[in-house]
Amino acid sequence: MIDLRSDTVTKPSEAMRKAAYEAEVGDDVYGEDPAVNELEETVADLLGKEAALFVPSGTQGNQIAVLSHCNPGNEIILEEESHIFLYEGAATSIFAGVQTRTLKGQRGAICPEGLAAAIRKDDIHFPETGLICLENTHNKAGGAVIPIENMMVIAQIAREHRIPIHLDGARLFNASVASGISVAKYAQLTDTVQVCLSKGLGAPVGSVLAGSELFINKARKWRKRLGGGMRQAGILAAPGLVALRENIERLADDHENAKLLADGLAEIDGIEILNKVETNIVLADVQGTGMTADAYVQLLKEQQVLANAFGPYSVRFVTHYDVGKGAIKKALAVASSLSKQPN
Amino acid sequence: MIDLRSDTVTKPSEAMRKAAYEAEVGDDVYGEDPAVNELEETVADLLGKEAALFVPSGTQGNQIAVLSHCNPGNEIILEEESHIFLYEGAATSIFAGVQTRTLKGQRGAICPEGLAAAIRKDDIHFPETGLICLENTHNKAGGAVIPIENMMVIAQIAREHRIPIHLDGARLFNASVASGISVAKYAQLTDTVQVCLSKGLGAPVGSVLAGSELFINKARKWRKRLGGGMRQAGILAAPGLVALRENIERLADDHENAKLLADGLAEIDGIEILNKVETNIVLADVQGTGMTADAYVQLLKEQQVLANAFGPYSVRFVTHYDVGKGAIKKALAVASSLSKQPN
Amino acid sequence: MIDLRSDTVTKPSEAMRKAAYEAEVGDDVYGEDPAVNELEETVADLLGKEAALFVPSGTQGNQIAVLSHCNPGNEIILEEESHIFLYEGAATSIFAGVQTRTLKGQRGAICPEGLAAAIRKDDIHFPETGLICLENTHNKAGGAVIPIENMMVIAQIAREHRIPIHLDGARLFNASVASGISVAKYAQLTDTVQVCLSKGLGAPVGSVLAGSELFINKARKWRKRLGGGMRQAGILAAPGLVALRENIERLADDHENAKLLADGLAEIDGIEILNKVETNIVLADVQGTGMTADAYVQLLKEQQVLANAFGPYSVRFVTHYDVGKGAIKKALAVASSLSKQPN
Amino acid sequence: MIDLRSDTVTKPSEAMRKAAYEAEVGDDVYGEDPAVNELEETVADLLGKEAALFVPSGTQGNQIAVLSHCNPGNEIILEEESHIFLYEGAATSIFAGVQTRTLKGQRGAICPEGLAAAIRKDDIHFPETGLICLENTHNKAGGAVIPIENMMVIAQIAREHRIPIHLDGARLFNASVASGISVAKYAQLTDTVQVCLSKGLGAPVGSVLAGSELFINKARKWRKRLGGGMRQAGILAAPGLVALRENIERLADDHENAKLLADGLAEIDGIEILNKVETNIVLADVQGTGMTADAYVQLLKEQQVLANAFGPYSVRFVTHYDVGKGAIKKALAVASSLSKQPN
Ligand SMILES: [Ca+2]
Ligand SMILES: [Ca+2]
Ligand SMILES: [Ca+2]
Ligand SMILES: [Ca+2]
Ligand SMILES: [Ca+2]
Ligand SMILES: [Ca+2]
């Protein structure tokens, strides 16, 4: 199987497994797990934040951020195809009681003027704008890197209105490797950041949420309420540390493979590439093949290639370290053969 | 004062006050207030619904509808400038735990294709689409009448997906009078409807929510939780009955006055009319006067004319029965004089 | 019918109806209703608070208090048979996201030591104690007056822990008339108070919530979200003012009638009085008659006397101004005749 | 250090670490992790339920149960010192919007008559009783085994009222080993069960929630919303399987050690044992030593013995597989020496 459905499918490397095996652990609910503590400090340092918190998933990291920043009746502003809005089961409204205010982005980037206009004035009829959420890279926009200039203007607006910013940086390391801008530079424009260890970095489980000490103290309690306080979590944190040590720079290979895949797909009859491929995601429109995305993905699967239907006619391919250049070429051969078949 | 801020400012007529004075009352929490019962039956009949519930405000009627139709984690679809989304303090997310999914409308009317595309598929990442909310007339679109053809297509889509529709009909009687289509015809396309008595109809307080018996039974309990269960509420219901009896047809005068006002304003230097005036709302862009909406409204006020700033440069005027043709002409004279002054 | 089910069934007097008829009204959502403003100021003064807010019901007043004082994840401490806990549909948990911590009271009065022990320490596992709720008089304890000494000790504990107190004073005027202690003296021991106008005071609809200016500003927004913002609410506020002016002192008659009723019932075979009758509520155990409360209440009803089943064998009678001494005597005659019948 | 604070501090055994190292993993959000699937099937079988779900913590298992069983506005009945009520940060009220109704238990066991009386009738003022929660063994009652006879009567009442039961079985294996009654027998009396792998069983992280297929499908979505969906979770599930295979029967040793500890402590001046020691928890009252629990625990710590203050004067000791008989004897020697010191 060549699994291009998501970079979440990455499996832990030998080094990560060994790290799990050898992890010095303790009870993290008591704050005594050495591997977790080291991981949290490492990520806080990388992101230039005072403190960090290990959480079981990116979704939980994002939810904790909203719960810690907001009060019920607040409105949060986010891009209309952001992960928090599309893929987290309306959790921000259920748990934090906030209303989602979505803005249409350009390749995932929110227009600063639109943002400024969307911030609520003080009025008895209005929710209070409590948080701005950004996502970099932006999944639904095809792994698009949000330009730092865009983030800088937004940060300026947020500061003026004293509204915090949370960055869903599930794939922030991809953005950093693609742009050459450090994750700390991105992070410094936002109050809090969530980064995933289990996507391109390949760790088995977990994300890290970073921010001020005060924020992380609040976050720790929300994690407990959400049931994300784990005991000997070092068994996950230790491979997470390996992921950070060994797998950041190599994301460049994934990006190169994604371009290779996109270029190959572009040459196939009936397939159009929908996104500018900057990182590890390729979005392909397959309507020209006469198939829906669902049908196309099914045919690929029969040939041992996995991808995800992402819209009625769009298919998402995600490259990662379990799929090398050779596998990409095989996948292209399969895609090529599908277009040659009479439907 | 010529008060054109809203039709909510209408004051009860002599007949309404007399009805309040004479109202036969009882304890409505026990279901024993005769005037309330008569009002609820009257509105249910008018709207062609099985049952109805008197509530203290349109906001509460809408909130009860969302609470009664939805479960936490649902997503509700609504127009991006609808009252429920813009002006109810994020209450649907706080109280019902639902996520708001907004669609850009055309004069308040949601595009059916966009609606169909926004309905969620069954997926562990997705909220379930639990309700579609419409608003007719549409306040923010300038009292626009949502075409019944648009509502028919949406009703068809909703039925196919088994998603209920709630109609925020705060000004549904205005839509009906303007279009010549009965409120029952509109209501039959939706599962539940909320109509206001205290706007153009002139009753002092209250709205009515209508739907199936089953729905109203659920709604009654949600009303209790929200603190909308009132005791001798006949004192409000009796004038509400007068409002329904005496003030529906005369909404045509308000619509005529709104057109008169719009035509007059359109001729004033620096003012542009933003909406097609179908009912009792006029939206004017005052940017050409060199003033912001706030400044313009302030100047009007100094001349005894009240209106509401509705955007940075847009001003809303609402006609109603406490403002006759003469008052409209005076208001126009004031507006005209403002444009002649050097700023 | 002799209606002893509740003092909520009181119907507005001629003076109240006239006040409604003549009320000078305005749009209270704009803060422009003179009668509402006068009512709010009057109650704030009576209670010695900075500000007050008119709300459609006691339930809404209590809910707004919890929403304004607390954050989600707080715990509120309240007596285990308090109205907020027993009779408000779990609304504090749904809307404010707070957990209810109940303490068993003595005639409705919480034991201060138990209260102190129930206040949570700072710990990642614990909700934060966010509010203490008292109820005076205490409905379920049979209209018991909570001794001011008890409230003073509780206020001291609350102050030490910086926890606010909300007083559900739906029948605080009854407590005051019975004890001779002013409502202001009670109110000064608590941060916020809700008093009902539509119970013993006889107004058709409404309660008032009082507290600091800052609190009432928050409360006003929560009222809007709950749908309690009403337009020409003066039509209710004006009779409310009459109620305050004319009906406080006469609560003594209700208390006297309650004693008369209790003394009479006590002499009837098979009936035991359960409460020390201090105000306008009588709780009777009817088990000795061989009937359940439901059956007993049904028999009374057939003889034109209404009361409420309050437990499997307990029946609640509430006196109020629509039931005079003569009616009490008739009710006693009916009760007496029931016990003489062979079942 | 002799760590008797909790059985959560157990560290993974060599066999568990090896299992993590070798775990065959997949993406569990796609349902493709073989170790997770095996663990879930194993636990479902053990408990005699149709299906099961791996979750990061017991708290999350409990919260998911409440979210899946209940609607907002429901009331849940639970013992007044249960973990869900005392130690989960009011999460059931925040997230599920349910009100907690607590009943005083006898050694953690709820009185069936009290339970029956607490179930709400159908009334517009009342929350609907939506769930009964039991806890076995009961932590705060000192690891007390809830008698199966008590559970049988409760199950009967619940069935009659069609109210589901959730069992917080964080330490259900301790109950089973102590009583000789299988976990399946306990589980069959309840609709859903949560069991912890990371307490006495020694797995590094995780709990399992079991119930019907329909329930687990709902639960899976709530887990996603709470952020408990983990990717290559096999790294945790594999040691969990080892825990189930190797560590259930040996809980008897922990129970024996707890008795040894209790007997020893009982002989020390100033210490009283508060609970009947049936499993692995000992509660000691240290007031007779002249110290508070906090002070006593601090002194123990200086002598390398860890325990938890559990009340103003009560100290909790929990035995587990990282503390053998020798360590217990050392702990006793320390405790003995403390009582001999002049304070
Ligand atoms: Ca992975
Ligand atoms: Ca009005
Ligand atoms: Ca009016
Ligand atoms: Ca009344
Ligand atoms: Ca362990
Ligand atoms: Ca453990």
TrEMBL record, chains A, B, C, D:
<dbReference type="InterPro" id="IPR015424">
    <property type="entry name" value="PyrdxlP-dep_Trfase"/>
</dbReference>
<dbReference type="InterPro" id="IPR023603">
    <property type="entry name" value="Low_specificity_L-TA-like"/>
</dbReference>
<dbReference type="InterPro" id="IPR015422">
    <property type="entry name" value="PyrdxlP-dep_Trfase_small"/>
</dbReference>
<dbReference type="InterPro" id="IPR015421">
    <property type="entry name" value="PyrdxlP-dep_Trfase_major"/>
</dbReference>
<comment type="similarity">
    <text>Belongs to the threonine aldolase family.</text>
</comment>
<dbReference type="InterPro" id="IPR001597">
    <property type="entry name" value="ArAA_b-elim_lyase/Thr_aldolase"/>
</dbReference>
<feature type="domain" description="Aromatic amino acid beta-eliminating lyase/threonine aldolase">
    <location>
        <begin position="3"/>
        <end position="287"/>
    </location>
</feature>
<keyword id="KW-0663">Pyridoxal phosphate</keyword>
<protein>
    <submittedName>
        <fullName>Low-specificity L-threonine aldolase</fullName>
    </submittedName>
</protein>
<dbReference type="Pfam" id="PF01212">
    <property type="entry name" value="Beta_elim_lyase"/>
</dbReference>
